[in-house]
Amino acid sequence: MATASTNITHDFPGFFKVFEDGHIERYMNSDFSPPCLDPETGIESKDVVISEETGVKARIFLPKIADPTRKLPLLVHYHGGGFCVGSALSTPFKSFLSALTSQANVICMSVEYRLAPEHKLPIAYDDSWAGFQWVASHSNGKGPEPWINEHADLDRVILAGESAGANLAHYIAVQAGATGLAGVKITRLLIVHPYFGCKEPDKFYQYMCPTSSGTEDDPKLNPKSDPNLMKLKCDKVLVCVAEKDFLKSRGEDYYETMKKCEWGGTVEFYETKEEEHCFHFFNPKSKNIEILMKRMVDFIKQD
Questions:
Q1: Looking at the annotation, which residues are catalytic?
Q2: Which GO terms label this protein's molecular function in UniProt (predicted)?
């Protein structure tokens, strides 16, 4: 009987390690929390298939509908996890997105893109874009998902993500403008503790994306080098960072880039003191979670 190799060829602590025979072990695996009616928030959720061919899914969260004639903004979310861990169908994201859906009174859809390194980048970007195109297919009110047809205002779409998910959300906003995607209007871009690589060559990203240099000349790692940045389709951007986040400087760089590039919208900045990267998932007892959540909700609700 064959046994798995114990010789490690690549090790990225906190994410995954690769063995000589090619098999991969993650340092943490996501659970699966089934969709349901949340008794605390009254939020109902369901899972939908975006593509039968690729298996890409999404989870949709629907708040209590007080007035069936009034459509609600749609928040499209991309989860964090370094492109290689995490799941839109897991307990942490279910709890977070149920709370955000309830407090902001929006419909939320989180895309379950395929993970690296089994699915090499840019597959996560392609899946994320496919999810957004699927949203746009509802613009005539005859798309495949009744919740979006009946309750979502596609002239008020918010893109959001944390860490690698923030990278994906930014990419989709640029892609929507660059391709002239019709049927949706992106009004807000919520960028939380973004992952845009490092100033040194990013070997972690490069392993997941063999076609990338892993350096700042890759526009997916450095928006400043993206020739399509000025085509970003959005009215307002909020950049959130954490004081002790090892990626804080990249969030600051992103904010400064968006502030100076004259892309046509406005950009805001919010820093949480004394906290680390994505603390609202890793430090659930933090008193700052409620404050950060309020800042997000206020941004979403801005006129």
A1: 163, 245, 277
A2: hydrolase activity
